[in-house]
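pinned: reference chain
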Amino acid sequence: MNKVKGLKSKDLLGLKDLDLEEIKLILDTARSMKEVISRPIPKVPTLLGKHIVTLFYEPSTRTRTSFNAAAKVLSANVTNVAVSSSSVVKGENLIDTVKNLEVMGLDCIIIRHSMAGAPHLAAKNCQASVINAGDGCNEHPTQGLLDIFTMIEKKQTVKDKKVLIVGDIAHSRVARSNIWGLKKLGAEVVVAGPPTLMPKDIEKMGVRVSYQLDQEIKDADIINVLRIQKERMEKGFFPSIEEYAELYGLNAERMKKAKKDVIVMHPGPINRGVEMTSEVADGPYNVILEQVTNGVAVRTAILFLLLGGKTPS
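pinned: its structure tokens
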């Protein structure tokens, strides 16, 4: 497959791999796509005849559904592979699965996997475009892009803005994609959470580490709260949920310290009462549902750019 003009690779595997111009191209294209999906009939024949498959080894609601919606906006065909009822349960490995799917005439494979690097392995072993929909604790590039798109939509720019990422940094692929993208766009990024949930040497990514959430909230422009990923924890990383919520959860009292124009984000699903109270999750500063809407626009843009669509009219 020839490289598509504007993107250097046939695949989207992580924001670490994208340069600044590629990130800007995706965000600019997403703005056009958001206009398309807001039309009374949100459908254009841009990718008519293209065939996309989602191959998710982990559960998903927002990511898989929004990729399906994005593909349908562009008139592409979509097949969802249920790993639990596929040949994977018979012992088929990832490379064999991908190669078998590719020879069925697929143009793009969207993969979510518990193993970091799985989409990269798939991309090396097929000619179809591969999109990383989350790999282990590594990256979740489309979530990172939709988060940044939402930030820019609300703040006009992220350059010199303070973005506070709170919570389970150690197990968060969302945090890593946010950090790679935000730093390339000139944002100040601060990560806050329990010491046991802070990756070793994360400062090397260009962020500042803090364990004082109340202090950091005061001048934050954007607060991106992460989910506690119990499924990736093999042992206790903090004494209790109650203690975590007290020290690092967002609540109405804590939000009184924040700027009046601060925005609160969350990649979902929210553990209400842990990462944030319902008062915050449903409050005036949250843009969580807008993130979901923007996810369709960003994923539409990515499919468009990777699969060589013509500009929709």
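why pinned: Strands lie at 51-56, 77-82, 108-113, 129-135, 162-166, 188-192, 208-210, 222-225, 263-265. The mean pLDDT is 92.
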